[in-house]
Amino acid sequence: MRLTRNSRLADKVLRPLENRLVELGYVGNIDCNTIVDPDGNALPLEFTTRFGWPAWNIELALHSGDPIEWLYGLCEGKPPRTRVADKIAVGIVLAIPPYPNAGAKTDEVVNVPIWNVVPSIEDNIHLVDVMRGTDSDLATSGDYVLVATGTGNVVVEARREAERVLRRLTIPQSPFWRTDIGTRLRRGLPELQAHGFATGFAYA
Questions:
Q1: Nearest Cα to Cα of residue 87 among 164, 152, 21
Q2: pLDDT per position as a tens digit, 161-175
Q3: Is the distance from CB of 174 to CB of 148 less than 8 angstroms?
Q4: CA-CA-CA-CA dihedral for 5, 7, 13, 14, to nearest 10
Q5: What is the DSSP letter of 17?
Q6: Runs of H (alpha helix) within the chain
Q7: Angular region, 107: left φ>0, alpha ψ -120 to 50, beta rest
Q8: pLDDT computed for residue 163 by the predictor
């Protein structure tokens, strides 16, 4: 993810709705998952006026300060001044079994200790299914545990920081995460940029 003021994707997908959203008085987030076909057409797959997961967690990595303060300012029509617009952010979900399959007993996914959340990585950890533990400061309250984020000047740098954060954590319940996040951009980014999309991104 990268925050930007100018976006060909936004121009194609969201700009046609701008006047209507203004008429409605809408103030808030719009999550629009989109693919770009080989001819450069932007094709929306999902359109929701809510914070997406883990998109919201990744967006937090690109803001400084208290998110409640800048969200409140946004509602009042004051653009946030906390954006880190010159960085790329990557987020990786850490889960425990049986995620993504249902059927776990409560004692299998609740109150599993989470250790080694040290100050140096606290800003990179976005808690989801987490509570105060019985035998530890933090423990799981479900199987979608947290999102680790990393930022950098290029995609590879951001992904490596997120992976470094995950490797610091200890959870005695077979924690796992995807190791391919962002890797498809090695091939796909030049194709997107040839159509004028994601021009501020660099893979490595």
A1: 152
A2: 999 999 999 999 899
A3: no
A4: 10
A5: G
A6: 8-13, 18-24, 55-60, 67-75, 106-109, 155-168, 185-194
A7: alpha
A8: 98
